[in-house]
Design a protein that fits this description.
This protein has 182 residues and is an all-alpha fold. It has a single domain, classed as TerB-like (Orthogonal Bundle). 65% of the residues lie in helices and 2% in strands. It contains 8 helices and 2 strands, in the order αββααααααα. Strands 1-2 form a two-stranded antiparallel ribbon. Helix 2 packs across helix 3 and helix 4 crosses helix 5. The longest helix is centred in the middle third of the chain and has 33 residues. The protein is globular, with a radius of gyration of 17 Å.
């Protein structure tokens, strides 16, 4: 079974017959999670990918962000640390390679399979990943806002979670003094 079949996507050929269409993004992650039931694997794969989406927002993934993603996937995915490390690495790689084309598709799938509470937890985790290096940039915040919109979360949900991370918002932090300042 392909990952898209696991996600419930099917492609139809010219004759109208259902043809499997695979997306490499989540397929590779789900293969690593093969021991999980398909619904759980689908959820963990999408969850990890979306975390990597915000970590990649500023075109660099800090070590602190990677460690935060590993911890979050271990906790929320209920995976052993070794598997969480692999899942996060695969999600990061897939995002770097295919992020532009897969971001919306994966988030749309998460919207379909997650409860409202799971979406809010994901939103909190997105801010936690962004705050891991003590600075949530405007770019990261904007990507999180886009993800929240794709998850059909209300703006007040976004603001409520964002406000818990206000001390990490780069726009509200004091600028570093110039190097030549006394």
């Amino acid at each position: 079974m392909s990952i898209l079949e696991l996600f419930g996507f099917r492609r139809v050929d010219e004759s109208g017959a259902s043809v499997s269409a695979e997306t490499a993004t989540v397929r590779k992650i789900v293969e690593e999670l093969d021991h999980l039931e398909p619904e759980r694997a689908r959820f963990v794969a999408a969850f990890a990918y979306i975390l990597s989406r915000v970590a990649c927002a500023d075109l660099q993934i800090a070590d602190e962000e990677t460690r935060a993603m590993e911890r979050i996937v271990t906790e929320h995915g209920l995976l052993p640390e070794e598997q969480a490390v692999i899942v996060v690495q695969m999600a990061k790689t897939q995002n770097l390679l295919f992020g532009g084309t897969e971001n919306y598709l994966v988030t749309r799938e998460m919207n379909r399979i997650a409860t409202h509470e799971q979406k809010l937890a994901l939103l909190d985790c997105l801010f936690a990943v962004s705050a891991a290096d003590n600075a949530i940039t405007s770019i990261e915040s904007n990507v999180i806002r886009q993800i929240a919109t794709e998850l059909r979360l209300e703006h007040r949900d976004f603001i409520a979670v964002k406000s818990r991370f206000r001390e990490s918002l780069a726009v509200l932090q004091e600028p570093d003094p110039p190097a030549d300042a006394p």
